[in-house]
Write a structure and sequence with these properties.
There is one protein chain. The chain is α+β, with helices and mostly antiparallel strands and 141 residues long. It is 40% helix and 28% strand. The chain has one domain: Nuclear Transport Factor 2, Chain: A (Roll), CATH 3.10.450. It contains five helices and eight strands. 20% of the residues are buried. The mean pLDDT is 91.
Length: 141
């Protein structure tokens, strides 16, 4: 493995672990430190929490306001059970499966494009269990 590939693997592993730690601690500064200044985030939660048509946030400053709101509106079903990740050194992907050893959680897939050790693009895909939480009004705003 070349040094460039080894560095990319270390950066991906760091983002995978550090994102989970920031999410668990609801540490906004730690979460924002993982993103490029001009990063983008796409999620159905953008429309739901912000009441906008487009599910995209552009730039770390706007993202900070959104993630702060996400942390403040964490339902108990938004747990963090996951088993690992997939990566080619530039794209990092993992799943929060609906079924866990402790019951059901929000089913989400996270996809992050990593550049220079930081998140450039972050996309969040929801499964049927998570979507139904919005449809049924079970997700706090």
């Amino acid at each position: 493995m070349s040094n460039q590939h080894a560095d990319a693997a270390v950066a991906v592993e760091h983002v995978f672990q550090a994102w989970d730690e920031a999410l668990g601690a609801k540490d906004l500064d730690a979460a924002m430190a993982l993103y490029h200044e001009d990063a983008t985030l796409e999620s159905p939660l953008v429309c739901y929490l912000l009441g906008v048509e487009e599910g995209m946030i552009r730039g770390r400053d706007a993202m900070r306001l959104f993630v702060e709101r996400v942390f403040a509106h964490h339902p108990p079903q938004r747990r963090r059970f996951r088993t690992g990740f997939l990566s080619d050194g530039t794209v990092l992907t993992w799943e929060y499966p609906r079924q866990t050893p402790d019951g059901e959680q929000m089913d989400i897939v996270e996809v992050m494009e990593i550049r220079d050790g930081l998140i450039q693009h972050h996309r969040v895909y929801w499964g049927w269990f998570s979507v139904n939480m919005i449809k049924n009004g079970a997700l706090p705003r």
